[in-house]
Every structure is written in C-alpha cells, then in structure tokens.
Amino acid sequence: MTTTNPNSATVERTWYVIDAEDQILGRLATRVATVLRGKHKVTFAPHVDCGDYVVVLNANKVKLSGNKENAKEYYRYSGYSGGLKVRTAAEVRAEDPERMITQAIKGMLPKNKLAREVITKLKVYGGGEHPHAGQQPQPFPAYV
C-alpha cells in the first residue's frame, strides 16, 4: 500500500455556496474553515492547500447567540497612538456585514503563510446574489 502526498497540481477544487441566513456565526465559521482548509477530504495534508472555494450569501442576516449583538466588540488599530477603533457587532453589521464572517473564519485558520492563501478562497456577500454562477457552486455539504 502506498501513501499519496497531495500537491497543488493534483488537488481537485469544488465551489460551495451557503446561505448564512439564520445561522449562528461561530458554528457557520467552523464549518467553512474546515472546507477552506480541506480537512473534509480524505487527501488532507496540513502543509498543502487542498481546500475548496466557499461562497457565503446573506452575511447581513447571520445570527449571534445571547447578547453578543450589543456586547461583542470588534477592534481595529491604525498603528498610530489613539488609533484604536472599537465597534459593537451591531455597528459592524450595519457598516460591513461581510467583515463579521470573514474575521470569524480567519480567526479559526492557523496563523501562517498557508492560511493567507486559504482565506483568498472565501467569497462573502451581504445580499443573496453572487457573481460566481460560472463556477457552478454546489449547495454546502451538511456533513461538515
């Protein structure tokens, strides 16, 4: 029996689309991070980007459990003194709903060069339309 080592030439990528409406942010993010890394595949290797593309729709309708809508805070720092900006989840949802999902998924990926490549396969849209119809995305798998 031989062991197969995947590389970027042998990886087959598929496109998945998921509707984030009425889904809890953290649970959605863990499922998407698993598919982006490729951990749902039999040929997973931690040193190779073998994940799939994921399109997330209706990012502005994702749910937060408990009182997180008003209590959860997002931080942005410009690098200058006094440049720390603190926004609640409700304010971030109003300004940039895609940022909530992207930041949650990015936090669940490893902090290395490979993760910066993996996050480029994530496409998040606030509404229900996306420009990736040519890639023929499939519905998101329920087993992940």
List the helices and strands and how they pair.
Layout: E1 15-19, H1 25-37, E2 53-57, H2 68-71, E3 73-77, E4 84-88, H3 89-95, H4 97-107, H5 113-118, E5 122-124, E6 138-139
Parallel strand pairs: 1-2, 1-6, 2-5
Antiparallel strand pairs: 3-4
Structure described in brief:
The protein has 144 residues and is of the alpha/beta class.
Features:
Ribosomal Protein L13p, Chain: A, 28% helix, 4-stranded parallel beta sheet, 6 strands, two-stranded antiparallel sheet, 144 residues, 17% strand
Structural account:
The chain has 5 helices and 6 strands. It is of the alpha/beta class. The chain has a single domain, classed as Ribosomal protein L13 (Ribosomal Protein L13p, Chain: A, Alpha-Beta Complex). The strands form 2 sheets. Strands 5-2-1-6 form a 4-stranded parallel beta sheet, covered by helices on one side. The protein has a two-stranded antiparallel ribbon with strand order 3-4. Strand 3 and strand 4 form a beta hairpin. Helix 3 crosses helix 4 (97-107).
